[in-house]
Design a protein that fits this description.
about 550 residues, mainly alpha, two-stranded antiparallel ribbon, 18 helices, 5 strands, globular, disordered C terminus
């Protein structure tokens, strides 16, 4: 018999190991196939979803305007003035009589006196009635072509407003041109003063106030900022000429101005607010999120912001995700990283509630619940599209509150000034105390926005000075800063303001050194491409790149 060699000890366990390895590989392969099928299903489901536009926010904003006949809307008449108004040439645009191109500007204003008169009359009409739309409104083509904003060819091929436009594409339509109207009226006011025409000067002044009031009807932040700037133009113009040419104003003029200042100062509608920005974000969410019908949904990459105003960054984003591997990984990111719609909408609602309360507040006493208002808004939609190049809503809220306060500060100061001038005319002297003008010429003394106490007044070398304690909240007796940045006394968020007061009236000329410092600071901010809002809770940067 032949003996059989038994298997070696080393070879015996090899077969079970190979079997285990094969089984593991099969299991892994099966798991991979199942995972691939599951992920393929997820991709199929994800790319089969699309945002559903449940609301037409532009139509909702336009509905009250469309109920008013076009002839009763101010914008209809502004269009006609723009059709008549000559386009400005470069050598015809001077701001003040001391500018070198002033003679050409004065000649331009006289040639366009009819259009300026139309603007003054139109400023009295309510409402403004400027519709929210994208594209080019056919009614705007004539003046846009005349003023060079559209060529004849572009006008013929222009895209009419769409039925449900993304609000981001509708924000800037006609807004810039609207800002030019009060600017022209302001320059004409200076010409009227040069010609000693007080009646035309005051008519222009009231028109600027009116145009600013009309602008507050528009819902978006950019419109609110422009309206605030227009109102501030009127206040600055009045303050300047009450100081340098008080004889321009009759007693009747000053009474009318006092009534207007009092009415505007007590009008809560003349404030920067954020309701339009909330609508803007809500519209953005519905354009980038699916809608399951129960208020929930998932972020999609194919949302629509509109073609005309699409930021370059969004185009770059769309180019990047064209690669198949990016398209392949997007569903996992969108479903498991991006917050669902309901969660985001709830956070947005809560955040804007805090922001709006802050904007309505006063710098010296922020509303309860806003003390720790920092940049925590989960704006994942913007983050996804522009990789963090978002505008800080915290910074915007603080900025809006501060701009409202600055406007109130300057508005209150010029109201005091008008009362002082009337007192001086009546009594032949300046009052010893600001209380002397109450209540005969002023119902109450406006408040200093830094302290909540009445604005201050003092006779210095026999001349009146109206002032605020400034950012350091310390009364320096009406003395402007002698060192440091002159503008720091006006900044509500300055952590180390210069020592001195904010001189509100009469207008003061900066010393050369201080003016240079302030100009350099502003130039640096412009080059950096951002403005900063340093709150007591930390630094919040508003990036405007």
């Amino acid at each position: 018999m032949t003996a059989t060699n038994p298997p070696s000890a080393a070879a015996t366990p090899a077969k079970p190991k190979r079997r285990i390895l094969r089984r593991a590989c099969k299991a892994l392969a099966l798991a991979f196939v199942l995972l691939a099928l599951a992920y393929g299903g997820l991709c199929w489901w994800y790319y089969s979803q699309a945002p559903r536009l449940a609301r037409n926010y532009a139509a909702e904003l336009n509905a009250p305007i469309l109920k008013i006949p076009p002839e009763k809307r101010a914008w209809t008449h502004y269009r006609r003035a723009l059709e008549v108004l000559e386009p400005l040439q470069e050598n015809e645009f001077a701001e003040k009589p001391t500018d070198k191109d002033w003679p050409a500007t004065a000649a331009y204003l006289k040639r366009n006196a009819e259009a300026l008169a139309m603007i003054r009359e139109t400023a009295k009409i309510r409402p403004l009635g400027m519709l929210v739309h994208d594209g080019v409104d056919p009614a705007d083509i004539a003046w846009k072509v005349r003023r060079g904003e559209l060529t004849e060819e572009a006008a013929a091929n222009s895209t009419p407003p769409s039925e449900n436009p993304p609000l981001v594409a509708a924000v800037w339509k006609n807004t810039v041109m609207y800002f030019e109207l009060p600017r022209l009226v302001t320059i004409d006011s200076r010409l009227a003063a040069e010609e000693n025409d007080g009646e035309r000067f005051v008519a222009n002044l009231m028109a600027i106030f009116d145009i600013g009031e009309q602008g507050y009807e528009r819902p978006f932040l950019v419109d609110q900022l422009i309206a605030s700037t227009i109102r501030d133009q009127a206040v600055a113009l009045l303050g300047d000429y009450l100081a340098q040419s008080p004889q321009l104003f009759s007693e009747a003029h000053l009474v009318a101005i006092a009534r207007r200042l009092d009415a505007d100062g007590n009008n809560p509608q003349l404030r920067i607010r954020l309701d339009g920005e909330k609508t803007f974000v809500d519209d953005m969410i519905q354009r980038y999120y699916t809608d399951g019908g129960d208020g929930d949904g998932w972020f999609t990459i194919d949302g629509d912001f509109g073609d005309e105003e699409t930021p370059a960054d969004e185009e770059e984003f769309d180019d990047r995700i064209e690669a198949w591997w990016d398209r392949f990984r997007i569903p996992l990111w969108a479903v498991f990283v991006m917050p669902p719609r309901r969660e985001l909408q709830t956070a947005v609602d809560e955040y804007f509630d805090i922001a709006e309360r802050l904007v309505r507040g006063k710098p010296w006493s922020p509303p309860a619940g806003t003390e720790r208002f920092v940049d925590e808004m989960p704006m994942h939609v913007l983050d996804a599209k522009w990789e963090g190049k978002t505008v800080s809503m915290s910074g915007i809220a603080h900025m809006a509150m501060h701009l409202n306060a600055t406007s109130d500060q300057e508005h209150g100061a010029v109201a005091i000034t008008a009362a002082l001038v009337r007192f001086q005319r009546r009594h032949g002297r300046w009052p010893a105390s600001v209380a002397d003008v109450v209540p005969e010429f002023l119902s109450e003394i406006p408040l200093d926005q830094f302290t909540g106490q009445p604005l201050l007044y003092k006779l210095i070398d026999g001349k009146p000075v109206v002032y605020s304690v400034g950012a350091d909240s310390d009364d320096d007796g009406g003395q402007q800063p002698t060192t440091g940045n002159l503008g720091s006394v006006k900044r509500f968020d300055d952590e180390s303001p210069s020592d001195g007061d904010w001189i509100l009236w009469p207008p003061i000329e900066s010393t050369d050194d201080l003016a240079d410092e302030e100009a350099n600071d502003l130039e640096g901010d412009a080059q950096d491409g951002n403005t900063e809002d340093d709150t007591e809770d930390g630094n919040t940067e508003v990036n405007t790149e």
